Amino acid sequence: MRYISTRGAAPILGFEETLLTGLARDGGLYVPESWPTFTSEEVRALAGLPYSELAARVMLPFLGGAIDPDEFRRLVDDAYKGFNHAAVTPLVQLDHDLWLMELFHGPTLAFKDVALQLLGRLFDLLLARRDQRVTVVGATSGDTGSAAIEACRDRSHLDIFMLHPLDRTSAIQRRQMTTVMADNVYNIAVQGTFDDCQDMVKAMFGDAGFRDRLRLSAVNSINWARIMAQIVYYVGAAVALGAPDRAVAFTVPTGNFGNIYAAYGARAMGIPIDRLVVGSNSNDILTRFFRSGVMATAPVTPTLSPSMDIQISSNFERLLFDLHQRDSGALADGMRRFRASGSYSVAPNQLETAGALFAAYRADDDQTRAIIADVWRQSGQLVDPHTAVGLHAARAARSEHAVAETVPMVALACAHPAKFPEAVAAATGVHPALPDRLADLLARPERLTVLPNSLDAVQAYILRHARLGEAKPRGSV
Ligand SMILES: *Cc1c(COP(=O)(O)O)cnc(C)c1O
């Protein structure tokens, strides 16, 4: 199993190197040189399996022997045994032709846990083999930092430093990070904005001496292994609803295009998928692309669904690569022009190819609130604003006949409603409760360090505390 860069000028790598490298050296993203495929019989045999066995069967072909199958099965088991639902990603029926796939039963109540719980363990295993450590550094506005922290906590070959802007995250978001009492987890509250935090992380990666000494790493959304881990639940849902004999459609609330690209991957592996529906909030660069064939950046507007408030969908490059018939030269040229001009166009035939599989719809905040209220009235189900953006798109796709009546639709529920309680309560009058195991979150002790908005101060702190830095932290040897 080999992985190639979308831009064609980085080394071809095996699974282990692809995982540890993340972004390709030429600025591109790694994709499999060719997709492993299942026969109909193999797909049929996946029906009824426990999640961890399904996950092992779907992912093993991507490892190309890099990890012993039994060892990988143990790792997968361990990654998902902490989920709050035995089915890990259960389906809930909302209507005769509509299902929700709940991806929020992991430790931080959002879908990123499904990939990151596995990714942290994969990193740790492969680093242990090499007797190496890395220092993970990230910045968060609050909604995604906790998933990275939960992925890295207690991993013996990783330390994680997460920067967030002091007093600018919700109490729940902050506490999901600061109540993690693990020796290798450091929460830094910066006296500044999220942009200040992000700029500091960029500066640290740009400081070669610092970067190399601490072996800086990120667990960002372009890592191939995250895509791989997300393919599993698409396969599982499709098989539960009739694959290989009946095709299904998926609607995915989309930001960086990582989640929905995994559905594209499931299809490439032989799962019958009739249509993939993109749900955007007001930051609708993708919806505009699928209408016009032009990807043009616009300023980011804050919405009720902050995890989708993005300007550029980094994983979209993986789809563009295929739309260019995997011509990495043409893609690299296009991406250079996109960087320079903020705009990228594809040819009419490429747009037609994309439109045959994808449909895209946007929901503004008013429409998002209306869906949350409507779903609550009709089915007694509370959904978070991201999920609501998807459900809006799913309805639009049905009414515009982008999805046939006979095709079951699975809409992805990407966050637990209690993760965004204000929006849910405003739309329904009901305050969503945290799951039992997090019920005491607001009473747990917190640990964080407040630092001035100064790169020097943050770097000095990291050097002092990282195991690869100057001194040893908290009594570890
Ligand atoms: C990250 C996230 C998304 C967007 O997923 P992408 O893979 O970036 O498209 C949507 N909803 C929630 C709740 C998220 O955390």
Beta-strand segment tally: 15
Heterogens: pyridoxal-5'-phosphate
As a whole number of angstroms, the C-alpha radius of gyration is 21 Å
Q: What's the overall geometry?
A: globular
Low confidence ranges:
none
CATH class of the largest domain: Alpha Beta
Q: How many structural domains are formed by the residues? A: 2
Our measurement of the CA-to-CA distance between the termini, rounded to an integer number of angstroms, reads 38 Å
Strand order of the largest sheet: 3-4-14-9-10-13
Polypeptide structure, described:
Helix 11 links the parallel strand 9 and strand 10. 44% of the residues lie in helices and 15% in strands. The chain has 19 helices and 15 strands. The model has no long low-confidence stretch (mean pLDDT 95). It has helices at 15-21, 40-44, 51-63, 69-80, 112-130, 145-152, 171-178, 194-206, 208-214, 224-240, 258-268, 285-292, 316-323, 328-341, 348-357, 365-379, 385-399, 421-428, 455-465, and strands at 3-5, 30-32, 91-95, 98-102, 134-139, 158-165, 185-190, 216-217, 248-253, 273-280, 294-296, 343-345, 358-362, 409-413, 449-451. It has two domains: 91-108 and 224-428, Rossmann fold; 133-220 and 447-477, Rossmann fold. Helix 3 (51-63) packs across helix 4 (69-80) and helix 16 packs across helix 18 (421-428). 48% of the residues are buried. With 477 residues, the protein is of the alpha/beta class. The chain is globular and about 60 Å long. The strands form four sheets. The chain has a six-stranded mixed β-sheet with strand order 3-4-14-9-10-13. It has a five-stranded parallel β-sheet with strand order 8-5-6-7-15, with helices on both faces. The structure holds pyridoxal-5'-phosphate (PLP).
